[in-house]
Amino acid sequence: MPLFVRHMLICAGLSLGLVSVACTGHAEARGSARHAASGAHKLSLRSSAAIIQDQETGEILYGKNASTVAPIASITKLMSAMVVLDAGLDLQENITISSEDLDALRGTHSRLKPGASLSRDELLRVALMASENRAAAALGRSYPGGIDAFKRAMNHKAQMLGMNDSRFDDATGLSSANVSSAEDLVKLVRAAHQYELIRSYTTMAGHEIHVAGRPLAYRNTNRLVANGSWNIGLSKTGFTNDAGRCLVLQAKLAERQVIIVLLDSWGKLSRIGDANRIRAWMETNARPAIGAVHKSAQKNRKPAPA
Predict the structure, then answer these.
(1) Residue 21 and residue 28: Cα distance in Å, rounded?
(2) Percent of the chain with pLDDT over 70
(3) 173-201 as b/e: b if 16+ CB within 10 A
């Protein structure tokens, strides 16, 4: 067989029993693809959608159904907090919980009864740390122009952040019309991490407030913030039946600042399990394969509702 024909066949990926020859660019690309696939295989997550991004470089370290649009539950509260802080509202102003703040969609429980009065700062704190729905609802209701103006501000902020697959319909996340994708939520977490109060309040293990002279103790909905082996800079959980169990994190893992988004975890503890699996994967690989993206659900991607 002529030498030039043999060379062409090798470059096309046929071995012919010969010593492997690295055709310019192609062998390296194939090797990288195999390495990425191997890295993806080692990380098996129970969340329906996920993404891991190196916060400093923007590299996607792992993705699974990352562009699928779905309800995001209380992850919404990160956007609510940014909108409140962007408006420069008086954080010491007292706001009274009203009947308008009660959850008429899902009937969720709250210890903040109508008539309870707290500062905007305390409402923000328990909304972010303990995912207190009436606190978040009161923040939206007391926004200049009311809840409609608040929703417009949320969606405008999303547009400014390039969250093109995201829509916001209320301040709490109880509405299933609050939708986003893992790709968009990376942008949300990156933006929220720039706010000192959001970083502080989402990573508090617990906090006690006083309502009508009575103490109310709240705990963070993410148990990992109380785990001394984790270095978490921002955290938010979410759950509704439609959204499943969700978790977003900014954390330092394997000497890298990363953003993690986990959506629709099927088990009660699976989002925490997934976070721990990611940590172990990163620490084992030191520098995980880049671009190990699962695209199994891309063909079923649903457009965000208008």
Answers:
(1) 11
(2) 80
(3) bbbbebbbbbbbbbbbbbbbbebeebbeb
Token code pair at residue 183: 């790709």
Indicate the residue type of 113: K
| Domain assignment present for 38 | no
Per residue, what are the HEC states of the chain?
A: CCHHHHHHHHHCCCCCCCCCCCCCCHHHHHHHHHHHHHHHHHCCCCEEEEEEEECCCCCEEEEECCCCCEECHHHHHHHHHHHHHHCCCCCCCEEECCHHHCCCCCCCCCCCCCCCEEEHHHHHHHHHHCCCHHHHHHHHHCCCCHHHHHHHHHHHHHHHCCCCCCECCCCCCCCCCCEECHHHHHHHHHHHCCCHHHHHHHCCCEEEEEECCEEEEEECCCHHHHCCCCCEEEEEEEEECCCEEEEEEEEEECCEEEEEEEEEECCCCHHHHHHHHHHHHHHHHCCCCCCEEECCCHHHCCCCCC
**Which among 232, 244, 291 has a CA at the least distance from the CA of 271?**
244
Amino acid (1-letter code) at residue 91: L
How far, in Å, CA of 280 to CA of 269, rounded? 17
Has residue 306 been placed in a domain? no
CATH number at residue 284: 3.40.710.10
Q: What amino acid positions are annotated as catalytic residues?
A: 74, 77, 131
Instruction: For 198-234, write each residue's pLDDT tens digit.
Output: 999 999 999 999 998 899 999 999 999 999 999 999 9
Q: Give domain status of residue 160, yes or no.
A: yes
- Domain housing 60: 47-300
User: What's the predicted TM-score (pTM) here?
Assistant: 0.81
When divided into structural domains, the chain yields a total of 1
- 20 located within any domain: no
